[in-house]
Specification:
Strand content: 15-25%
Order of helices and strands: HEEHHHHEHEEHEEEEEHEEHHEHEEH
Largest sheet: 9 strands, antiparallel
Structural class: alpha+beta
Radius of gyration: 21 Å
Number of strands: 15
Low-confidence stretches: none
Amino acid sequence: MVGGGQLARMTHQAAIALGQTLRVLALHATDPAAQVSPDVVLGEHTDMEALRRAAAGADALTFDHEHVPTDLLEKLVADGVNVAPPPSALVHAQDKLVMRRRLDELGAPVPRFAAVRELSDVDAFAARVNGPVVVKTVRGGYDGRGVTLARDVADARDAAQQYLSGGAEVLVEERVEMRRELAALVARSPFGQGAAWPVVETVQRDGICVEVIAPAPRLDNELRSAAAQLGLQLAAELGVVGVLAVELFETVDGALLVNELAMRPHNSGHWTMDGARTSQFEQHLRAVLDYPLGDTAPLAPVTVMANVLGAQQEPEMTMDERLHHLFGRVPDAKVHLYGKGERPGRKIGHVNIIGDATGSLDDDKYVAEVRERAVRAAHWLSHAEWTDGWDPHE
């Protein structure tokens, strides 16, 4: 797996159960996956020789992130390496303009968009949509980076100018009036077998996913089915092998629009580690190794994942002590820590809370209670403070 981050670390956990060894190409020996894998190649993902060392003798080469240049991957394919997903698919997760144009060709629902080569392109697009716009870098950027929600046309021009002057390609999109964000997570094998998990609701703050509710509550059944089918269709049309996450907008008028694609395990699927019959990490390995895909059924009416994000000021209490207190109060919390140092806003882990089997996704009070417990647990781990003010000494 190219990349030594938390996704590779959790994929390694799944590989152990399947009797596989996951070699990782990591930048540093202290990277999350490099801490746990016995087979580590240190090097850059832009270094052809490092990629070749990582791929040597492997059954498949896959990804913790999408940033490997496709021309290098094409050389690996020419060398006979099984690259999954193939570069012809992966480019759609790397280049937002390529993705938007291809999805538009396929008839998939996308926001209106335009390439920006000069500032007049921003003016022309803003006049065409007659509404607020979003300015994005075509490549790179994640967790809100490389994305500007423009206040007005002047702000959009300023953002585009900043990105262009930094050497980035730029596109502009209409800012969608949305009810919420959803994600359709699917997997596809080389022979075209597909599997879809329940569509989830994702909660974003400052461009970072902070919470996932699985399945998405109060989602129209037709829309739920359409989102899952869209994910499977795109996986097939783009030739994906492995897990595909389709990030979606649910608009205020009840439509779906595709926001982003990710061709790897994804934050929106972390709930599957404890809340589904087959986790996204095991499924990704099954797909790239061409095993039959696993059952994606949920294990409870609702599972909520909350990200553990580094606090503005690192608590004096050690993480080990925080775990001790968390398990004392919330013994059913399923904690996944990434082996990362704490810094403000950094994803250092996540917590899954599985709802009681007697509950119902249609019961707002039940869903809210599971959400509150997940958010409370994650906040405690990051801040060493209880959101409800609980004090064990009182």
